Amino acid sequence: MKRLPIVLTIAGSDSGGGAGIQADLKAFAALGAHGTTALTCLTAQSPVGVTAVKPCPAAFVRSQLDVLTRDLPASAAKTGMLFNAGIIRTVSDWMKANPGIPVVVDPVMIATSGARLLRPDARRALLDRLVPAAAIVTPNLDEAVEMLGRALGSIDDLRLAARAIHGRWGVPALVKGGHLRDSKLATDILWDGSVEEILSAPFVRGVATHGTGCTYSAAIAAFLAQGMELPAAVKAAKEFITGSIRHSVRIAGHTALDPLHRLRSQS
Q1: Any catalytic annotation for residue 255?
Q2: What superfamily does domain 6-266 belong to in CATH?
Q3: pLDDT (tens digit, 9 = 90+) per residue, 145-187?
Q4: Measured between alpha carbons, how far is residue 232 from residues 57, 197, 218 in Å?
Q5: Active site residue 43
């Protein structure tokens, strides 16, 4: 019987199925991992936007983490939408109690649609408690601006931002440049404190990118769970997310990423 690595997502639910834990589980399945979930929030959303958010009680998030740690221990984990300071403190405490589990922190603050997914009073908890304990932090352009408090408008800015994040919080940083204007390539910068990786792929035009950050960070976690070193995991995840965008599908008049395209091509 084949053994699968276990990967945990600590994130919110996307009722439209394109982001959040739904996207994470699709990525885990496509990459040959068993996904487990600690749900942090329910959302009412579609590819158009988020209309309502209902956070889970922090104690319930802790209960999910406790039972999974006991019965289905993960080889790697990722965080997504955490929403408030109480949930962030709970996740941080769990990370401190389980230092052997590498955690990919996707610092979800703002949805692609512009909706704010992190309460203002939770920003400090995210930056002070969660980010320093991460195996890697994966902000997009807008999130890197929020973290550093300065404008970013070029590839060179991304390179400086990755170094600044590492310098301030002491963790590897993958700063994603998919939102850069007037760029011919989707370029991301990885800085781990000693080596820089510049990861580029042609933009795929005419498709929505809702759920890209979730899927990308989930893929990194899945590859870490399989035993890859961090730079190799990030490179493999970049290829995976590029393919998921390139193979986007139509759903009721919208476009959506297809993280399962690899499985379909093998069948």
Answers
A1: no
A2: Ribokinase (3.40.1190.20)
A3: 999 999 998 999 999 999 999 999 999 999 999 878 777 889 9
A4: 36, 10, 14
A5: no
